[in-house]
Structure formats: C-alpha cells, structure tokens
## 1
Amino acid sequence: MAAAAAGTRVFLEVRRRLQSALLILGEPKEGGMPMDISLAPCSLRVKTPEGCTELQLPAEVRLVPSSCRGLQYVPGDGLHLRVQVQAEPDDTKLISVFNQSSQAQGCCTFYCQSCGEVVIRNRKLLRVLPLPSENWGALVEEWCCHPDPFADKPLHPQENDCFIGDSFFLVNLRSDLWQPRPELAPVETHCPSSENHFKLKPKANTKVICKRCKVMLGETMSSETTKFYITEIIIQPSERNFSIIPRSQFVQNVIAQCLVELSSARSTFRFTIQGHDGKVYILLWLLNSDSLVIESLGSSKSIKKFPLLEDTLKADSSSAWNAVKVLYQPCIKNRNENHLWSLASTSR
C-alpha cells in the first residue's frame, strides 16, 4: 500500500490475547513524502526516498497481511493501521519482582539500587514469605464472631526471615549487621494550657537513609524490624556481582510488574500511587497487560513519541518488550489531564 507520510519510526503493539496488532508510523514532516509499506508474515518494510526501514518480528509473532484495515492519519501521532497476528501466548512463568532474587537459598546481599551501596551483606534467608493484603485485619473481623485473635500479634520477621508486601520488604536486622540509627528530630506539639504556645519535643526519625547517596531506602518499624521499599533495594545472591540498572528503567519495570501481579491476584485494574505522607500523586488505570511492543528507532533527530521506552531501546536496532499500557491522571495542580503511558514489563 502507499501513503503520503514521512515516518522515521515504526511502532507495533501486539495484543497476545486478542491476536491483533496496532501499527503506528511516526508523525510525518510538513508536506510529507511518498512511502511504501510492505507487510510479510515475519517482517515489515517501509520505503521512502530517503531509505528503507525493515522491522524483523520475533519468532513467536506472525502477521496476517491480508487482514490490514483501518488505515488513518492521527494528527500529532502519525499513520495508524490495524492487522491480525498469530502470536503465541507468553507462557513464561511470572516471577514476582519482589522475591525473584530473595529465594531462601544461600546468602543474599541487599544493595541500594541508586548507587550500589551494600545495605545488608551476606544475609542467610531461611524463609521468604508473602504478607497478607493491607486490609486483612478488617477481613478477619468479618470472619470471626469473637475479638480479633491477631490484634496483639503483629507479623514481624524473625532473624532469617524476609516478609514481602505489595511494595516493600520486611527484614529483621541483627545487631552485627548494618542497621539504621534513628536520629532525634524536633517536632512541634501543642501543649494544653491557658497560654496557647508550642514546645519542641524530640521524636525519633524512622527514615532509613543510604550512607552513600542519601536516598531514603525505607523506615524502621520496631527496634528489630525494618521496612525496605521495593523501588529502592535490589537483592542478589552474595556470590553474584552487582551491576547498577538505570534508575528510570528499574522503576518502570518494578511498577509494571507490580500492576501485572496485583491485577492478576485481585482482579482489579485501578490503582493509586501515594507518597509517604499518604497523599495521592497519580491515578492509574490498567488497560493492557498482554502487550508485546516492537519498535524500530529511526533518525536520532526524530520526535520521540514513546519516551518511557527510550532507556530500554538501542538507537540502531529494533527491540521487542513485554509491556503494560496504562491510562494515568496526575493528581498535581494544573496537571489533571488524561495520558496514555506504556511501561516495559519484566515478565520475561
């Protein structure tokens, strides 16, 4: 087929469950140029007077060229075209991003993800156990006809335990391992008296800060238990060398897999991201969790339409990534607009 456009970039989103794909050719330059698009079962080719771009598909994906339909130009985006595919289901077993390295085998080392600083060295994990959901206490009250038997028995890990929540690890820190030292921080508290005045009273600071880069890694829950956030900590077997992953790539992988796991386990697709103060910063609506994104990057001067994938793609090659697609709405002043957002997933 032929169309008037000057795409420098090819983007293909394959839906495994629907056996369909959306092809997007990047925003054309002003005036456009002749373009020939050729589809084959295992490849896609775009020819322009400036050159030829060919996109090779993964072995598990095959296009059905005769099914092409819905060609249209979307201003600000480019040419859109839908086509049927024959895509094998992703039968790779989903390994939890929270415990993929926290297996109860051998010794593990906890690292700060931002700078690679060792947080806990050579910890023997005998038990790696998932925690119940956040509202499990309320459910117990509904199930029991007598007072909650677990009210006075909080779930705290023992010396060689690692408990895993939706967004954190709980670890019991022994005195001979690195552990945070709470600092005294002045806070204002109201003193009831005939004179309305404020008085400084010391309060323990429970923040756990990286010694090297000063990033907040978590918080102390008790004298022995520490909570580490999954976006700040990497756990690796002690005998394995640690390599720093780009920050934005690591965070998007963690969030993407968290959405996949929670949507599968709890049959939900709406989420919120909150700060340490409980304030909601962003609303997420999971659209697709079965997407395979295939993209061929064109000229480095081209407009980047999918910036969140830039960290994982090489400028001189085409790449395929399992991804989730979400609709998000920032809860920040003057930014309450809907956006589409793709996140690379680590389910492979």
Note: The chain has two domains: 2-92+283-344, 107-237.
## 2
Amino acid sequence: MKHSERVLFLDIDNCLYSPDLGISQMMKSRIYAYGREIGLDSDEVEETCSTYFKDYGLTVRGLVLHHNIDPQEFNDKVDGSLPLEDIIKPNPLLRNMIESANARIWAFTNAGLDHASRVLKCLGIEDLFEGITYCDYTEPNFPCKPEKRVYEKAMKEAGVSNPQLCYFADDSAKNVEAALQLDWTAVHVSKQTSSCEHGYIAGEDNIIRCCHIETVLNLPQALPELFS
C-alpha cells in the first residue's frame, strides 16, 4: 500500500483501456435492447436513452426515475452481459506505470462495482487499487460524475480531505471540469482535442493544472510530480 498523502483517482472505462476496443458501442446496443424490452418505442429508444444520459449522467438513472425499472436487472442485462474477458487483456505497461506512481491509487467510476472489478481484473491491475468509488444502481438517486457530491463521496471513501492532494484522470471532459471546480488536479485522457489542452485553470486558492493526453500511459509526462 502506498503511504503518500496524495491520491490518484483513475476512471476506468475508456480511460484504463482504449475506446477502440468498442466496449462503449456494445454497451449502447445493450441499453437500447433493454429499452425496447421494457416498452420504449423502437423508433425513439436511442433518443430517449441519450436524453437520459445527458440529463442524469447515466441512462440507468433516467430509466429508474421514469420507468421504474429493476436496476439489478438492468445491470445483469447490460453491464453484466458484456464479454469483457474476451476483449480486455492484461496490460503490463499499464501495471508498471501505476506501480511507479508516488500516490495512493483509487478507482473512480460511473459503472457498478461488478463491472469495475471485472475490468480491473481483466487488465491485471485489481490489486493495485486501495478501493473503488462506484455507482450503486440500487441506491435511490445515486450520485454519479460529474455531480459535485460524488467527488466529495470519493474523497471521503479514499480518506483524503484536502482537494489539493487529489489527482484525477478521466476520458470525459465534463468530469475533468467538475474535478477542476473542486481544486483537484485533473487530466483529460482522450484522442480528441481537449478544451483544457493548452492552459491552466485557476482554482480558488491556487492554480490547478489541466492536462490533456491521448493515452493514460502518458500520465507520467502529464503529472511528473507523481512519478519522480
């Protein structure tokens, strides 16, 4: 276990593995199939699910609120049905990079616990994380990124009270911006251009750096203070 006071929060999906694996597309097709199964109009299911995702952070939250679905059934038929073990393979380079970080390592995901644990196991890095802040679909009005309260939840669960000790990597620009608003140091992991690629964003008491990298393996270059 790392003894540093600093905590490196790592998103999981499309961050620790490449989005080119197509897992997001597989998940979307399963969500749409589930939507049709519960009675959503076939011609409107994609738009409805997309609207829920934009309005509530996760499609499942909208389905729970407006269609009274069983969240465990959703989890089993969507996340749980993904053939992750056939797609995601152990990544020694990722493991070596995480092991070299001078920070405590914590997973911070919008997925459920089962899915998050499966991905980390497939990558061969599950033992490197002290814990996982995840979405409990069965919890009424559960928080998810980019809501402020889930970042506060992550800090509490990881046992860190000073936001200046919090470092974060995520593939979502919205999630990165939310972290910056809380004075975390954040890195946007994406092959697409980031809004904070070239600059610095001022926090309340200091300057918080927002970096952009194309792959999580570039974290040592983005956050040299954690890998020196």
Note: The two ends are 18 Å apart (CA to CA).
## 3
Amino acid sequence: MGMVGADGSVRGVPFAGAVPVFEDRTRDACVVVPGIMGSVLEDTATGRPLWGVDLRMLTGARSGEGPFAALRADTREQGADAETARRAPLTRVRAAGLLARPWWLPVFQGLDPYSKAVEELEKVVLAREAVAPFPYDWRLAVSYNGALLARAARAHLERWRERVAAVPEWRAAGEARPRLLFVAHSMGGLVVRAALEQDPELAADTRAVVTVGTPFLGSAKSVLALNLLHAQARPGRVVRRVQAMAATLPGVHDLLPGYRCLDRGLDVERLTPGHVARFGGDPHLAARSLAEHARHRSSWFALPGHRAIVGEAQPTVQTLEERHTDPSVVEGRYYAFDIRDDGELGRDPATGIPARRDASGDSTVHLPSAQAGAPAPAYVFGQHGALMRHQEVLRQIRRIALERPRGTDLGDGTGHGPGLETPHLGGTLGQPLTLTVTGLDTPAGVSLSVRSATTSHPGHPLTLRRDPDRTDGALSARFTADAPDLYQVTLDTGRHTPLTQLVLVTAPDA
C-alpha cells in the first residue's frame, strides 16, 4: 500500500514538499568486546603500560622482563571468579582501552586493532555514544570478566535508553525500546556468553550477539602456548617470558580445547588437568576450565540472536599429539576427528582407523569450535587476528546491526580458498622466514608482500614458487627482515578480500 496519496497527503495527513527519506540507523546500543590480548593493560598504581603500547617489549630493543613479570597472575587473580567481580573487583591491573595498534604473541600470532569495527558501528547507530567498547583484563577468568561485562552492558543500555527518550526525533511512536547488540571477537564471545548466562534479564534485553572467530569448544593453540619451553630446544627471550606468563593466566587456560583433541592413534582423548600440567600449564586452572567445557556439553547455552562469523581455509592446528620420545612435548596436527551424533569416533569400516579430516579454520580456531551452537554461520576466508578489520566481516556486522536478512556464506560456498601460513613463533633478525600460501593452483595473478606494521615504509613484493617440501601443492616465498619489527604479510589474489597476518622479528638473544 502506498504512503503518498493522489492529493499529496502522507497516510491521510496533508503534506507539502518532498517526502523525507531518513538514513537507515539502528536504535540499539552496541558493545564491542575484544579477544585475548585485545585490551591495553596498565599498572593501576603507576599508570605504566604493561601491554599493547610499547612494541619494544617484544622486539628485543628493551631489556629486562618488566611488563611480562607484572602480567603474571598472582594467587588472588588466579582464583578470581564471577563472585569476586560482584563483591570485590581486582585493581592491580587496569584495562585502559581497546588495542589501538598491531600486536603479536608467539603461537597466537598477530592481532590487529579494533578501531575499524568501532568506526563501522558508529556509522549505523543514532549517535556515537550508542557504541561502547568493553576493554577487560584478558589475563583473568572468563567468568570474572563476564560478571564485569554484565554490569557494564546494563549501565550502557540504561544510559542509552535515557538518551533516546530525551530526543523527540528518536522517540518515535510505536518503536520498541532500544536493546543490546554485542559484537565480540575470539575470547570476547566467551565473555559475552558468561555475562548473559549470569544475567538472564540482560539476555532478554539482547537482540543479537555477533561472534567473530570465537572458540566455543576451545583452541588447540592454547596448549602450544603453554608448551613453549618444552617444545623449544633453545627458547628465545620472548618465548621464555611468554610461557612463564601464560602458565599463570586463567584466561589462557579458559581457551583450552574441551573437545577430543589428543591423538592416540586408534583413539582420541579429551585433555585432563594432568595432561595440561605435563605440557607446562597449571592443573588447577585447567581443571576449572575443563569443568566449564563439561558443563556446556551437558547444557548448551544458546546466545540470543546468535550470528557467528567463522574464518575458514587457513592452515589451523586442530588436534595434538605427544612426541613419542618426550611426552612432555606436544605437537600440533592440522586435522580433526569425525565424531558421530552418538559421540563415538567415526572409523573406517575396513580398518577401524579413526577418520581424520582437515576441518581448517582461521589459523587459530578450527571450524567446529567457531561455529558451535550457531544456527547459520557466515564463512569468510580470513586470518584470526585480522578478522575484525576484514572488509567482508565488517559488512556483515553492519548488516546485522541494521537487521538485514542473514547471510550464510562470505566465501565461495565450497570451503576451499586461499590460505596464508606464517611462522607462529616469529623470526630472528638475519634469518630468512618462509611464508606459505595454500589453496591456490598457480602463483599467476597473486601478490604476496611484506611491510613494516609500525612505519609507513612501502612493502616488499615477494616471488611465490611451488614449495618442493610440501605435498599439498603449496606455494612459498622467503623474506629476510632488515630490522627488528612487527611486519604485516599481505596475500592478494585479486579475487578475494586480501589476507593479512602479522609476524614479529626480534633481535638475536645476547
């Protein structure tokens, strides 16, 4: 039915002039929740930055372990949970804001800033104050940060509702009250889930939760991060300090895989606290995390309006295997196991061997973990740490914020596409790095380049060649850095959104 009548009236009301057309905006309040490493941390007492500000703590130009030692969780921080957050929040370390510059950590690799995601949401809300970032101390338990988020999100929603009610143009008759939209990356999705589980009224006030690369079933990479000292014959300075820090952090242990991931040849097991302790972690923190996984397996909490965006086609560690000569060393494997609906392993009917397959992922979170519980995931070719600045991901976030019809696939629908593989422990000055491209038949028309992520220096184009040491037809190129720095690797096929990953090159240890 038309709105404008033959007499120029609009819905029966006399009207002179052109019919106004308004910009499409959402009335809802938005909260952006980063992943692990994604919040700047500082010493509350001194204001000294501990994380996300001074890259020299990683590149080797700064001596001493200073911030790394300060980031280790003490006994009280290790025991902090939701009740702690409600009664006596911790104050030693403060989350000062979202990550504003590229960062990097061994195993977990690169993480890009969250500024683009915030900017895109600000374009589709009624006013910029409708978008609230939620920085948090990612070192601590998901349950603790979930309680803090529940309180912060409720306060943000109430402030925004008061603001909307005070503006006549926004207070449209018949319009529903604003609700919440959460946009969460990686571990941030687990924090949102904890917040909404703890506060059912907040869940009822939530229209949608967008999770981007969230490891609902955990990530095998977290075990590799705890195992750094065992796995390295001569671990470098950064590796030593990161492992010593990670072993104390509840947040890292909350990323442990809860699915069956330990390859035993003819069987596959779930991790136990004993396994985690042998690999370099804390058995008590592991027991708490693995118990949470068991609870979710028995009673899955469905996020309201859940929209999962999932990275695929990237080489991703999915399962683990103990080294035969040293069971304290665990090695990542790029395949998963088929699990039937009854929970049993899928096996080859002739041999009884468990069926292994490469489920791929976003280089950190494998596909089944990121899509768990989501009714209609959207898939994109992208690296984990760069997903929140990936153009297709940002487009999907805008669509969901504006309540567009849900998309189902941002790739080509096949699950096969370009992948980028970089050294997950970074590199040392003077030593060449091997950069690998997967999923492509030929280097023709493909561009691979490396540039400093901290300066404006132009990138170095690299020559891709078929890698004779790979059986999967991968392409590779070599790059030797001329200075310690954080470098951005960019793969552009000309047909897909470019893939990016960060690689840290450090000075040699003294």
Note: Residues 101 and 113 are 5 Å apart (CA to CA).
